[in-house]
Specification:
The chain is of the alpha+beta class. The chain is 44% helix and 23% strand. The protein has two domains: 6-147, Jelly Rolls (Sandwich), CATH 2.60.120.10; 149-225, Arc Repressor Mutant, subunit A. The protein contains nine helices and eleven strands. The strands form three sheets. A four-stranded antiparallel beta sheet has the order 1-8-3-6. Strands 2-7-4-5 form a four-stranded antiparallel beta sheet. α6 (151-166) packs antiparallel against α9 and α7 crosses α8 (190-202).
């Protein structure tokens, strides 16, 4: 094991943040580090699920493929986020492919450790449910947004949030993913995503050079989405 502060990382996960210190400590023997290179596959759709993952650094793409071979990106897991909790609790196989977009370090929390704690500690179960509810609430917000917003609203919302997260005073930031992945994440075709970017550039709200975006008018970007 390296010098990764595993307890601190777990404590910041919505799933575990309501646990008492001794409850979190009981999980540590069931946590291991997983190191992956860019392009490595963590698991395939249909593989048995024996645990959940927490991303320390790097990004992980969760995706599905249609019968025709078209890829649909379900989610891109960022550093600090977790995944595979739901299928772990249900005892199902992994429903998606998980592939590293960068060199990555992850923590794997074995299902047996969590299930043992659930079986022997009612308070652990209640606290874990509280964390699961927070995670579910966030996922529902994503689904609602992508189901009710039009293409312009989704892209403007994504760029506004990316600009806020970057914290750059001049409004310039690199896109964290390539444009095809962003389009898939927003449930848009790459062509639609490109057309929306062109409209925003024509309106002089943004500039795009390769993967770098410069937000010229943050307030105008938000207002434009509602027109």
């Amino acid at each position: 094991m390296s010098n990764v502060d595993i307890p601190a990382l777990l404590r910041h996960q919505p799933l575990f943040q309501a646990l008492a210190p001794e409850q979190l400590d009981a999980l540590l023997p069931h946590v291991s580090e997983v190191r992956c290179a860019k392009g490595d596959t963590l698991f395939h759709k249909g593989d048995p699920c024996d645990g959940m993952y927490v991303t320390v650094y790097g990004r992980v793409k969760l995706s599905l493929f249609s019968a025709q071979g078209a890829e649909k990106v379900v989610e891109v897991i960022q550093p600090g986020q977790s995944f595979a909790e739901a299928v772990m609790f249900l005892g199902y196989a992994y429903p998606v492919l998980a592939q590293c977009l960068d060199d990555a370090l992850l923590l794997k929390v074995e299902a047996i450790g969590i299930l043992q704690a659930l079986g022997g500690d009612g308070d652990f179960a209640r606290r874990l449910l509280a964390g699961m509810s927070m995670r579910l609430h966030g996922l529902i917000r994503d689904v609602e947004r992508y189901s009710t917003e039009n293409a312009m609203q989704r892209v403007c919302g994504y760029l506004s949030q990316a600009w806020i997260d970057a914290g750059e005073p001049d409004g310039a930031f690199p896109l964290p993913l390539n444009k095809n992945l962003i389009a898939s994440r927003l449930n848009l075709t790459p062509e639609t995503f490109s057309r929306v970017l062109q409209r925003l550039m024509s309106a002089q709200l943004i500039q795009v050079a390769g993967r770098e975006v410069r937000v010229l008018n943050p307030e105008g970007l938000r207002d434009f989405a509602d027109e």
